[in-house]
Request: fold
Amino acid sequence: MLSRKYSIRKHIAWLTLTPLLVMVITLESFFLSDRTDSLSQDLITRGRLIGSQLAASSEYGVFSNNHTFLNNIAESAMQQADVRAVIILDDTHIMAAVGSMPQVLAATSQMASRKVSYKDTWPEKLSPKPLLALINKDAPLLDQGETVLLYQPIMSTQIALSDIETTETARQLGAVIIEMSWKNTRLMQSRMLWLTITATFVFLLLTLYIIYLASRRIIEPISQLNMAIQAIGAGNLDTRVSVPSCINELCNLSNGINQMTADLQYERSLLQLRIDEATIQLRTLAFYDTLTQLPNRRLLNDRLAHALATSKRSGKYGALMFLDLDNFKPVNDQYGHAAGDLLLIEAAQRISSCLREMDTVARFGGDEFVVMLGELDTKVEESVRLAYLVAEKIRNSLGQTYHLTIQQEGQPERTITHRCSSSIGVTMFLDHHANQDEIMTSADAAMYQAKQSGRDRINFYNAETKRVLSTDDQP
Reply:
């Protein structure tokens, strides 16, 4: 039960209504108890007042044994609200009785045989002792459930007849018994109870409505903040919160979330930029030579596979060239590896300038380069001719004099000149007639044969005869 979660609206309702209900129920209980007792006490007080007035008025009638007079004042007392019966008696018999008193009749055997109704006169010689046994001056109240019986003695005062008797003596002539009905009192108490319940219900409804209006000013902004946080947690950093609230804490929280989201968005953009840069660097390291920035063997293999697939679709030949720089080692030996690196960079640029955009030049390692020409021609003779023209252009470009500017630590900058020819081996390919390894091996064999034949040459590998054609055999 304690682990169960509730919404903020329910929390606010319970935290507000629980103490309010306790307070309302306590106050109502106290109010109803007080008012109920007050109404009951009012009936008793009014009955005693009527009994007191009736006892004072009955003194003459009892003393003079005037039944007509007593019946008249008893009937006048019956006109009072809630008075159901009046009995006037002396110490020997009932002198006047008006109304109905069934509880008393049921309590006495002598009265049970009589049916007395309103304005009936009871027998004068009926003994009052059973009544006085039930209600007397020591027990002036007797609650019968629906009615209450009140006892009021009729006193007589004797006036002193001589100077010797200076004190007045009083004696009891009889008594007045009044039956008061609880009906109107109970009705008023019931009405008061329902009125209180109705007022409480209306008050609670009004309170709930006020709580609802007040909670909306808190709950709706919090709901917006909750949805915004969920959206941010899902990765939507473009989320912004606009809470129209006059509550400082909610405004501060809204501003804090917006600032946090903006910071996260900025940090994510920086992180994404770094990831992109790192991806580019990794791709460069994975597919490109770090010195010449030419594709390496891995990227060359990928492009060769693509060229084979393209050749199969178009039916056009392609060519693969292996190039090795002649007279490269003396540069490293005489001027150092920095000069050799500059020469390799310059050679890569010269080779690239001789090719089309669709062609590929890659550094295979050391001073070896590979050139791949795609989509030459559908005829092998024309394709060989075009490949030879490109190879010759590359050979002539690489054979030009190199001017290399060297900057060594602790020495002034200097420029050196160097001539470096190249040996080139070429092989032709068309769709599936050869796989990648065979193509690479045949081009390498043609290049090796060119170096063995005196360098600065272009040799072709004939796939049909499995032999290398020298420069003298080219078209």
Observations:
- Confidence is low (pLDDT under 50) at residues 103-127.
